[in-house]
Amino acid sequence: MNFVSNMPEQAEQLQCAKHGTYETRYTQMMGRYLMNDQCPKCVADANAAARLQEQAEQKRQSAELLRRQRLDAGVSLRNCAVKFEDYFPADKDQAANLKVVQDFTANIAEGGRGNIVMCGGVGTGKTMLACAAVNALLSKGKRCRIIKLIDLIRELKDTWRRGAETNEIKLIKHYSNIDLLVLDEVGLQFDSDTEKLFIFDVIDGRYQNMLPTILISNLDITGVKQAIGERVVDRLREDGGKVLAFRGDSQRKPFDGVSSGVVVS
């Protein structure tokens, strides 16, 4: 591009190796003329390519941000991208469980209430479905956390340490106020009275705030009551809380060097 004092009566004809003949264009600026001798179709192609590249980069950044949010929310790397569509029910009972969790998630996304207790053997998809719910809700801007109950207890005990960054009251308040809390591996904690009281305080806080909770355990519902207390389960069952039984054999596949589908947990 160059400035010229006068615009010619007839635009100069130029040749583009890709698009053929085109005319030089002139734009008046402060008494002079800016001569544009670039091929307009080449310019349009370059702008379109730049827009596509920018959109791709924005999409990549959004995906990375969502991935980081999921990891920060406690979703494992294995389940970081899992969706409900990745869960393949082995029978009609598992299909019914899938529908319940999907409906639960859609309801929570709209500000609804409810709780779920998932009981059943290892490898039947309980954690996978819970992670799919967390992933979906994080995409909707909800604050979620999935954590093993033993790790939650460890966080509690860390507040007792001299110089701890937080205290027990603040920890309970935090977990009582997030949009969805998922407590995994219920029944594997140390089972002390102090732990049961702490668990009750968290669940009761969420109960008072009318916020949804998911509990996951390899125990049956009787075992869950024994592990965390009947008062906790009673609060989870109120307001239409559901207990889902996951039966059947583990669907985890032994590693043989070949990918054989989604691994459930």
TrEMBL record:
<dbReference type="InterPro" id="IPR003593">
    <property type="entry name" value="AAA+_ATPase"/>
</dbReference>
<keyword id="KW-0067">ATP-binding</keyword>
<dbReference type="InterPro" id="IPR002611">
    <property type="entry name" value="IstB_ATP-bd"/>
</dbReference>
<dbReference type="Pfam" id="PF01695">
    <property type="entry name" value="IstB_IS21"/>
</dbReference>
<protein>
    <submittedName>
        <fullName>ATP-binding protein</fullName>
    </submittedName>
</protein>
<keyword id="KW-0547">Nucleotide-binding</keyword>
<dbReference type="GO" id="GO:0005524">
    <property type="term" value="F:ATP binding"/>
</dbReference>
<feature type="domain" description="AAA+ ATPase">
    <location>
        <begin position="112"/>
        <end position="244"/>
    </location>
</feature>
